[in-house]
Amino acid sequence: MKSELLSTKGNIYQQHFQTYSISKYRRGLPHAHTVFQLLGVPDHKDKPNLANWIDKYITAEYPSALSDSVDPVQINRHNLYVHHVSTSMTHKCYCVTQGGCLSQDGKCKRGYDSLVCVPTTSFDEKGFPIYRRRKQEDLRIVPNVRDIVIDWDGKRNFYSK
After folding, report:
1. In what helix (H) or strand (E) does residue 44 lie, and over which residues does it extend?
2. SS3 letters for 77-123?
């Protein structure tokens, strides 16, 4: 069943399906894990077009400075996005005994301890995206969709499969 997922800046994202579950960690509030498949995404076998699509809609980079915009709405949206990225979308590693991601040898199980910048989005051997992260400050940014983060006023992480 096709339905409107959200509308931002005149873009309408349609979904093919959606499923979710509600859970609660020891250390936080209840939250939802939502999976939805968007329509209009390039075929997973067409890696160049899929990488371009990912770079257009999904980012794993710290927000760049706002251009010389004097539009107060755009300034507020940008400031809200910077706030969310800075406070809840920058990965912090901590000990596995506290529910964290650090293995016994001190390595991040999610790969956020890399010191290597990634100039272009590519895919690993299993087909998962390796997101573009062009600067050192980008290496711990959790993948997200800027417009959804702003419209939903909070943290939304995106993982492609």
Report:
1. none
2. HHHHHHHHHHHHCECCCCEHHHCCCECCCCCECCCCCCCCCECCCEE
> How far apart are the C-alpha atoms of 19 and 159, rounded to whole Å?
15
- What b/e sequence results for 64-100 when a residue is b if at least 16 CB atoms lie within 10 Å of its CB, and e otherwise? eeeeeeeeeeeeebbeebeebbeeebbeebeeeeeee
Give yes or no: residues 34 and 55 share one domain. no
pLDDT per residue as tens digits for the range 23-50:
766 656 666 777 777 777 888 899 999 9
pLDDT digits (tens, 9 = 90+) for 68-94: 767 888 888 889 899 989 988 888 888
Residue 24's domain comprises 1-40
